[in-house]
Amino acid sequence: MAHYRSFRDFDWPLLILTLIICALGVLQIYSATHDYSTASHDYRSAWWKQILYIAVALGAMWLAASVDYHTLMAQTPILYTLSILALIATFILGKRVAGGRRWLFNLQISEFVKLVIILVVARYLSELKSDELSARDLFKLGGLVGIPTALVVAQPDFSTGATYVPILIVGILLAGIQWRHVAVIVLACALVAPVGWFVMQDYMRQRLLTFLDPSHDPQGRGYQVNQSKIAVGNGGMWGRGVTQGTQTQLRFLPATRTDFIFASFAEEHGFVMVVVVLGLYFLLLMQIVQNAQTAPDRAGVYICMGVATLLLFHILVNVGMVVGNVPVSGIPLPLMSAGGSNMISVFMMLGLVNNVRLRRFVS
Amino acid sequence: MSPLHPERGRPQERANRLLRDDTRFALTRIAIFQYVTVAVFLFLIAGFWVLQVRDHEVNSELAERNRIRTDPVVAPRGKIFDRDMRIIVDNRSSYRALLSRENLNPDHLAGIAEGLHLDLAELQNRVKRYSTRPKHEAVPIKTELTRSELAFAESHMDPDTFPELEVQEHSSTRLYPQNGLAAHVIGYVGEVSDQELDTPDFAKYSPGQIVGKSGLEQQYNDILTGVDGQQRTVVDMFGTTRQVLETIEATPGRNLQTTLDIDLQAAAELSLEGRNGALVALDPRNGEVLAMVSRPSFDPGHISAQDLHDPESPLLNRAIQAQFAPGSTFKPIVALAGLETGALEPSTTFYCPGYATFYGDTHKCDAVHGIQNLHQAIVHSCDVYFYNLGNRLNIDTIAQYAQLVGLGKKTRIDLPAEAEGIMPSTQWALRTQNRRWYAGETISVAIGQGQVVVTPIQLAAAIGGLASGGAWYKPHLVRDPHSSEQPRRGELHPENIATIVSAMRGVVQEDGTGTSARIPGIDVCGKTGSAQRISNKLAKANKALYNELKDNAWFVGFAPCDHPEIVVAALWESAEHGTLAAPMVRDVLKAYFDKKLHPGQIKPPETADLPHSWFQASGLAGPIH
Prior knowledge:
heterodimer, A: 363 residues, mainly alpha, three-stranded antiparallel sheet, B: 625 residues, alpha+beta, Penicillin-binding protein 2a (Domain 2), Beta-lactamase, 2 domains, five-stranded antiparallel sheet
């Protein structure tokens, strides 16, 4: 049988949406960093670097789309083992940045592990013999996802580790988890939560406390959210104008290139453009879902929905944090936040989606 | 790149069923995901709507507040002068220490607290209270740095030690006369308190601002306080100035010219040296206060906790706040009531055997005076005469004339916390004590005892206005050019006033009780008063209590007798005999006339009981009390 891959078959709408969002991201990074006089380190190349990352990411996307996803899934044992080893290596050899070891050779390993997790979940669930998940399967899958999650959380990087969980959740929901299992899990979480409170790292506790009561620590955590809300509100309906956002330009808003880039965007472009960009993200997600609906097999569905859920989670947490509806976390906004690892891994995920799409006519 | 065939490969892969045979797989659940996505996005958009559309103004303002730093340009406080524009209160430079918060290191607080003699916990608290303000606002931590503290700050401000420490010059500190001259009149200043900030009067002040706490400093605080200028700059997150927007110059506080005369004030302060009491000198032609002293006193530049808790109340301004029975100084007012109502003629006589019995009580007189008319009764201060007079009148008639001259109510002098005094009447008894007035009490009131109490300023104003023919001007320390207030006038018969004034002349210039107030060449009138503080019965029963509460000595004098230019009321606590208070009044009167009639040739008064020399006083040196 012929596996026909046509140029035209590539998901162009998806790519166009992606690149528009990326372009806006570059514009925002430029605006936030163009004023060299206040740069504490070399910001000058930030926007250019971002373009380079996008270029590399496009290449990675093409790669991820080229190798049939069935082959990729076949390699999951190796990929999984490599991931675990890499995460452990990060512990030992990783560059110490801001109180944690997350980087190995300038790459954030945990970003790429996301791809492996998507494949692992897809493979495991697509090979189930029945339409319902047994408790044993649940535990096994939970363990498979849980181990890398724990390794990432221990870096410490709770936020990134947390992004693995939605992949698992969407997978088991699609696979047909029994309701009684759901009840048990929810109950278990409720019981474990207090223990978790004591066990969790102090900085996370602070984040939760600040979320619940922003005046709790106005100098520290509360300060970030506070400034974010002020910056966003300052944008009003039409925004202050590119490079004219005072909170961005005068550095009252922190992390304008990365975590709070959307706040910076909101300040300079206003409510109207915010709705437009959120609309673009929405269309992006719907496009991915469409690919899930036209996927040739279950594995394809799991892959596409895994990507969609992961991206939705990222958007919800990051943008939610910007408006103060979600506790502060350290996860970036896909396609806009400056940073290579996340950009490349997101593009590779979109590549996987294309991978499924391109093979949907297989017989 | 050639794709793999799904048929080939390991057996597990064949379980991956093709969806062509299973098209319904999870479509519903995928649809649910789509709806959930819509909900999430709506949720996020709602968040933006709240911030950007609904609360746009609030957030823009907060954004502005972040970036605009307003530095105050401190306005100097107005100075205080006497009537001849001689300076009484001036300003001096002082330094204050601040901590900048951008580079604040909590570990440094301990060292800073130690070097500047601050309490560490309080310092930490202060810093914490500033945490909601924009980051570039520095925290003032200590004002009035001493020399050693200033040296400490300047030597430890370098980047390697305490880079967050800053020192600022702060010129609004007061320079008061060293020996507490006119301390009660001037008052003192301090930082506005939290309670004060809550009141509407203080709404325009910010924490840390200096405001007057008593006396003229408090009364005229709004005038004395200038308007701080502002320098508005655009700053970034690190406090670096990007642009100076505007500089508004400070408006200095307005200076205050009082009606005080430093020369008379000095004479008054000297006369009360070593005594507890008060003295007030004012000009009855317009109500201007020429001197006001209260003892014991304090140093307005250094109020201490001791001052606040001292049982002798040095912070109390006895001139306007001490309420005592006036004693015989009240008699002229009773006489006025008698003459005006016709209950008495100047020729009316009473016989004084040294005592009198009314309503079953026997009251003593100082001496056996024999038959006396009004003039003699006042000159000799005969109690029996006035018992009789009081008995003829009733309390309400006496109260009517007492209120006319201004007793029983505030004079409304421009100082805070003036006391009202009490002028009893039947109404008053009913209202405050819920009882009937007994005629027997009127007897005591007629000689200035019983329920009647006055303050020195009330007495001075009352007698001054009376002697002026029945015109009472509101006592004041600062002239108000915009005030068109007319004096209170009384419809009094000039011949009655003349009778009383003539009697008061006799007190000083005949064989009266006030001869020690005589000044050669000056027509001085007056009246003594020895006011009991506890009743005779109680005094007999409790000797110790009597010793503690000996009679007060009053003297009120004015000159010249007809159309007086100056009236002085003096109170010497526990001195027992009113005659002893007379020299104090004489000293001040003499100072006034010496200055007026012999300018440039002020001679010391001819008296032996001055503890310090006159010239020492004018050098403004020496201890207080």
